[in-house]
Design brief:
The complex is a heterodimer of chains A (about 600) and B (about 325). Chain A is mainly alpha-helical and about 600 residues long. Chain A has four domains: about 75-200; about 215-270; about 325-370, no CATH class; about 390-585, MetI-like fold. Chain A has 23 helices and five strands. Chain A has a three-stranded antiparallel sheet. Chain A has a two-stranded parallel ribbon with strand order 2-3. Chain A is globular and about 90 Å long. The termini of chain A are close together. The relative contact order of chain A is 0.10. Residues about 1-15 and about 585-590 of chain A have low confidence and may be disordered. With about 325 residues, chain B is mainly alpha-helical. Helices cover about 75% and strands about 0% of the residues of chain B. Chain B is globular and about 90 Å long. Classes of the chains: A mainly alpha (about 600), B mainly alpha (about 325). The interface between A and B is large, with 48 and 56 residues.
């Protein structure tokens, strides 16, 4: 509890020693310095930021793709080669049908692309595969692929005019692709080359994890890099550009806040990754069986992907636990595992040998599955790291929604009063009488459990508390001189509300929001526990927890729950600190 | 006082109507069709083979007609209100000969005693603990108990249930049964054995229901007590030489109880919401589980009835806490 660290009353009353005579503290300076005094809250915040960073940087922490790869990738080349044939055939069909033919054939289809989109999609399908191949080829070997791209450009340019391509022209594309397939089979060594049939792949360096990032991931990664490095760059900016001048630093706050949003946004928009090549990568199995030949390869700390199943390790206990030890044939050395022997025949049921792929710890290594594995032998630690994305995001977004609605409704009711207040207050009362969890359950079950739905529903249902707070604050501030003055000056209502009254009412809202995130996380996990929560492809912690209800699989029930508990606890700790800092009257621990 | 209670009862009516309208709209406007679920299941079961399209359509139409799902939403609501006025909540969609009202009363017999026991328990533990740690404010004991209460505050209910099962169930210490309310051969038990069996089954669910409200209440009690202890009249009482015991028990306690007693109203909805989870963790056939099953099957009648009942319980809880205000604080008078 925070009280062990909260200063005594006398200490709290003493003013901060002035650092510079010219510098007076404004509201946010006071709030920040007050929060900073509460060591427990500050630590809670640090750990929460660490949690969020782990979620954001999950691809670099737990992945079955290498972070850096230098070598020859026969698998990717081979699959691109095969697919090139298929996608060029479909592109050729499209070009032959022409705009009118395309539109005639797809009328009534549920998800109809426009003609231009269809062209773009087909062109992209071919060019990405050609790209993946040329990356590993010498300039000489690239010639047939370049020719293919030229033909494609010509056809696409013609097609954008709307005309149908001549069958002979379009078929050339298919022919070139077929020729590529026939003559460009990959080999990894120069001695294996058969001229006219195979080509030698060149060693190339790639960064598969980075290449698979989506725009959103890049946005959040840049954002978190800014947050994590804030103490450094803030100091640099203050010293270099603002000359350590308190006033200029205070005025620069807005610019810094804008940088926090703008830089990640720009990075996300400019990002040119190629997301979603494969859900499960082929690198590890390729490296194990020799299809991928590496000179240098770096795997993440936890070399397991979120959806990567490990045959023979279904429901394997955490590898540091003694029941987890396994023989080479895949038998458990000690008992305690469900269904070890068939009751009728007495034959062991689990005897599939564990395959240890490239980059993974050995079968009985303590680090193999630190938190155990689930029903398909997927590494629980890796899934928890990825699952953090859903669980942590749900609480935050739901809170943003409920704060937005709550502020607007509360402001309207409190500022205007009268019948507006009457209707809104009555509505709040009705919603508050509802057993809230029932309401959320009903809405989620009936509307469908997508991550967005759950965020919106939790937000839509739980704004009433904040609305009441804001309403109260507005009623209190309504008669203050500065509000009356702003009205007398003819300032528009919206400006009075948002610029003059609202900033003064924000304190309690911030406190409620902090606790709201915690309760959002709890609600989501409870929904997932009941089986109506977020499911595939990204599971939340609550969904991970119910992969087994059997008490035999204790690790599956303990660890996700522990994470939920910890996160909620940290938010509560932080919330206490914020509340004590913002409103000492409400302080619980004195 | 009497007229106040009557007025409050009358005020409950518009709120209840508002709740039912809101609920009705949410359910009917959401996608998903119970008729399709029912007719699909019934068609296949009835003929022992995959029903043809027209059969399914037929069955669905019949189903809609039987439950008036083919009529405009306003009419449906009208019918519903009319039958509720006759205390009839209709039949279950998927077990057409079971009356929802009877089933709910059966389930309430399980849920309400559990809720009452856990409310009483949480008050019984929380009040002394809150008072004690407020009086001993700042000592190690106070810090320790506050810390534990703070931890309990963050424990998800379902996880607490699962952990209790892990620890006390057959795989752990094997002290207590973990599923259901009775042993499987409870029929053969004598009366004493039967009661003992039920009590043993109820221990873990009650713990699970209690710890949350207990943590909440003891925190509030501590704060309330601390507030009162700083008041002038307490200093006066001490100054005139009263024993510490009299000061705390006679002067401080009564005043600090006021806010905590009224918290009864806010504990009730937590319990009702929590009952869904607790009952599904421990497979207890109570109202929470009934509501959840209704929601999953899209059984409108069951959902409407269970939510109406729990909203009613909540409102009654509010009313009771307002009335208890009068008893604990003579300054407040309603007329």
């Amino acid at each position: 509890m925070t009280e062990s660290n909260t200063p005594s009353a006398a200490e709290a009353m003493a003013p901060d020693p002035p650092r510079k005579v010219s510098y007076s503290q404004d509201y946010w300076d006071v709030v920040l310095s007050q929060i900073r005094r509460r060591k427990m809250s500050v630590w809670a915040l640090y750990i929460l930021v660490a949690f969020y960073s782990i979620a954001v940087f999950a691809p670099f922490l737990a992945n079955d793709r290498p972070i850096m790869f230098k070598g020859v990738d026969l698998v990717t080349y081979r699959s691109s080669l095969r697919e090139l044939n298929i996608v060029s055939r479909s592109a050729s069909d499209l070009f032959q049908s022409g705009k009118s033919g395309y539109e005639a054939s797809t009328t009534g289809a549920a998800a109809r692309q426009s003609w231009e989109d269809a062209i773009d999609a087909n062109v992209a399908a071919i060019t990405t595969r050609v790209d993946r191949m040329t990356r590993q080829l010498t300039d000489d070997d690239r010639v047939p692929l370049d020719r293919l791209l030229e033909q494609l450009d010509d056809l696409a340019a013609g097609a954008r005019g709307g005309a149908a391509a001549a069958p002979s022209e379009a078929n050339e594309l298919v022919d070139s692709a077929a020729q590529v397939l026939a003559t460009m089979k990959p080999v990894s060594k120069a001695s294996e080359v058969v001229p006219g049939r195979t080509v030698q792949l060149q060693t190339s360096t790639s960064f598969p994890v980075i290449a698979n990032l989506s725009r959103y991931e890049v946005f959040f990664m840049v954002l978190f890099a800014l947050i994590l490095l804030f103490p450094i760059w803030n100091r640099v900016v203050n010293r270099a550009f603002l000359g350590d001048d308190r006033f200029r630093m205070r005025r620069a706050r807005k610019q810094k806040a804008i940088a926090f949003v703008l830089l990640p946004l720009i990075a996300g928009i400019l990002w040119q990754g190629k997301p979603g090549e494969f859900f499960v990568s082929t690198y590890k199995s390729g490296l194990t069986n020799g299809d991928v030949v590496a000179e240098l390869v770096t795997f993440p700390v936890i070399p397991y992907g979120i959806a990567e199943s490990n045959p023979g390790e279904d429901f394997r206990p955490p590898s540091w636990h003694n029941t987890s030890e396994i023989t080479e044939e895949g038998y458990y050395v000690r008992g305690g595992r469900e269904g070890r022997f068939d009751p009728d025949t007495g034959t062991p049921l689990v005897s599939q040998p564990v395959t240890v792929e490239f980059g993974e710890p050995a079968s009985n290594n303590t680090l193999r599955h630190l938190l155990g594995a689930d029903s398909l032998g997927r590494d629980l630690l890796s899934r928890l790291i990825w699952g953090a994305r859903v669980s942590l995001a749900v609480g935050l977004v739901a809170t943003v929604i409920q704060v937005a609605i709550g502020i607007i409704m509360g402001a309207l009711a409190g500022y205007y009063g009268g019948w507006v207040d009457l209707i809104i207050s009555r509505f709040i009362e009705i919603v508050q009488t509802f057993p809230v969890f029932f309401l959320i359950l009903i809405m989620v079950a009936f509307v469908g459990p997508s991550i967005l739905n759950i965020m919106v529903i939790i937000g839509l249902v739980s704004w009433t508390g904040i609305a009441r707070l804001v309403r109260g604050e507005f009623i209190r501030l309504r008669g203050e001189d500065f509000v009356v003055a702003s009205e007398a000056l003819g300032v528009p209502n919206s400006r009075t509300i948002f610029r003059h009254v609202l900033p003064n009412a924000l304190g309690p809202v911030m406190v409620a929001a902090t606790f709201g995130v915690a309760s959002g996380i709890l609600t989501e996990s409870a929904l997932s526990f009941l089986g109506v929560g977020i499911q595939l492809p990204l599971p939340s912690w609550g969904a991970l927890l119910i992969e087994s209800r059997s008490a035999e699989h204790w690790w599956i029930q303990i660890f996700p729950g522990l994470l939920i508990f910890l996160t909620v606890l940290l938010y509560n700790l932080f919330g206490e600190g914020v509340r004590d800092a913002l409103d000492p009257r409400l302080k619980v621990n004195r | 006082m009497g007229s106040y209670i009557i007025r409050r009862f009358l005020l409950m009516i518009p709120t209840m109507i508002g709740i039912t309208i809101l609920l009705f709209c949410i359910m009917r406007l959401a996608p998903g069709d119970p008729a399709a679920i029912a007719s699909g299941a019934m068609g296949a079961a009835g003929e022992g083979q995959v029903a043809t399209d027209s059969n399914v359509e037929d069955a669905a139409a019949k189903f809609r007609a039987r439950y008036r799902l083919d009529q405009p939403i306003l009419n449906q609501y009208g019918f519903w209100i009319a039958s509720v006025a006759k205390l009839d909540f209709g039949n279950e969609f998927f077990r057409p000969n079971v009356k929802v009202r009877d089933e709910i009363f059966k389930r309430l017999k399980v849920t309400v005693p559990l809720a009452i026991v856990s409310v009483v328990l949480s008050y019984l533990i929380a009040l002394p603990l809150g008072i004690f740690s407020a009086v001993k404010s700042g000592t190690l004991i106070d810090r320790g108990s506050s810390f534990i209460v703070f931890l309990l505050y963050a424990v998800p209910t379902f996880w607490a249930g699962l952990m209790l099962i892990l620890i006390f169930g057959a795989t752990g210490l094997d002290w207590l049964p973990v599923l259901g309310l009775h042993d499987k051969d409870a029929d053969t038990f004598t009366r004493g054995q039967y009661i003992w069996d039920v009590v043993r089954h109820c221990v873990l669910p009650v713990v699970c229901l209690t710890y949350g409200s207990f943590a909440y209440l003891s925190r509030q009690m501590r704060v309330g007590m601390l507030d009162v202890i700083r008041q002038d009249y307490i200093r006066t009482a001490r100054a005139k030489g009263l024993s510490e015991r009299t000061v705390v028990m006679k002067h401080a306690l009564r005043n600090s109880l006021i806010p905590v007693v009224t918290l009864f109203a806010s504990v009730l909805p937590i319990l009702i919401g929590g009952s869904v989870i607790v009952e599904s963790v421990f497979s207890i056939p109570g109202m929470g589980l009934y509501a959840f099953e209704g929601i999953v099957q899209r059984d409108y009648n069951v959902v409407m009835a269970t939510v109406t009942f729990s909203a009613l319980l909540t409102l009654v809880g509010f009313l009771i806490s307002d009335i208890t205000y009068v008893f604990v604080d003579p300054r407040i008078a309603y007329d």
